[in-house]
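Structure ticket #2291
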Amino acid sequence: MEPADLANRPLAELLVELHAARATGTLHLERARTTKQLGFADGFLVAAESSLPREALIARLEDAGEIGAEAATRARSLAKERRSSEAAALAATKAVEPKRLIAAMRERIAACALDAFAWPDGSARFEPGTAANAAEARALRADPLALALRGIARTWTPERIALGLHADRARHASAAPAFGEALRRLCDDEVAVLQLERVLDGRRTLETVVGLVFREPLALAGLWVAHRVGLVALADAPADDAAPRAGAGAAGDEAPPEIEIEVVGAADSAAARGAARARAATAASASRADGASPEAEEMRKRVLDLYERIESGDHYALLGVPADANAATIKKAYFKAAKQFHPDKLARLGLGDVKAQAAEVFAALAEANEVLSDPKRRKQYDDAVASGGSDDQVDVALLAQAESFFRKGEVLVKMGDFRGAVELLERAAKLWPSEPAYHALLGFALFKRNPPDLDAARSSLEVAIGIAPEDARAHMWLGLVLRAQGHVNDANSHVAKARKLDPSVS
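Resolution: structure written out below.
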């Protein structure tokens, strides 16, 4: 991406472009004496740094009243002493509960980016690179399209938004089949989405649609983003009245653009990994039928084997070196692996079906090399592994990975896939055993799974309540489990406790 003048090429356009390019690296923003660095991994925003003191993580938590002055000072001192991030220092001092720390880090990334939408001018340049920590990136990533929509709605005038749609104003606009599903992932305002679905009927010109939503900031911003990513279909003639309603969908509809939502992704879900392996196996059979080389088949197998190892977080195993390997051995192993799994080589072998998995393997190899090649980070990593994850920078990475598993398990619970949820929630609880929410939801998923494991469900819920005695949901769920086991009096006691703590719990 060429350097940009934000007055002529706004941040919203850059975010859409970087997402479409699945870019990995850093977007440097500068205006007067203010600088910001927005980190991207595979097109998603995963990190942010700012020269503004008020945008520092500790300052934000202190200003919000979530940590006191003493805790803030202690965390700042530790970060300075260890030369670590503020997030690492907060994790090490336990100034903030783990789940809240991850949420605060995500909120800070979004706030840092949204603040730059208000800049009337400034410069931007993108520097390609690698994501520093794959596990942390997966847990923290924010959808740049959702941020673009929010930023435009907050800071752009209606006239400015309309100007961005001017070139296609005379064409007739309809919602692409995936429009409603995709836009709901970006915008939590159902009224705005429904309004756009209603007016994007293929009979109106884009100019008319703009006029109908001109006074509705979220709808107008949603229209701008949808237009940029191809969710608005344009035609030179009005649609036939008998055509299907926009957004209704049909068999064979195109999939929506890849927009981040807290669902199970191929990187973290065991089920998704199994599906990826199944797809690759099918592709392998087809390749053999087409006369694919033994080298290609062997490479496909190696990619998928390493892909399944990523979630273990074992840098040594990923590089295939012993824990006492010296720096030269680690570097040699990394260069050998990176050369083997480079996207260009896979393309030459015709392995496009495992391109996504290979990209994650390539990023994980780079992360392992970066950690193990830095003596300080390697010691922190080794100490954390030996102690179950208690030191600063590795602490944040482990927590981020646990939170990623939890978020995806939570979505599976909502979808009714309790078996898949158990697999993810067990990983979350194992990685970060001090978080009660992980144990509580695991207990509920074990209870709802078919067949249920009542003893294990009860054990997990009791652990959750032991850590957080005032967790109303955990008490309610434990009551359900106890009732299923025939312990009616104990069950009633926990249900009563739950309703006392939170009358709305169910």
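Closing remark: Confidence is low (pLDDT under 50) at residues 242-290, 389-394.
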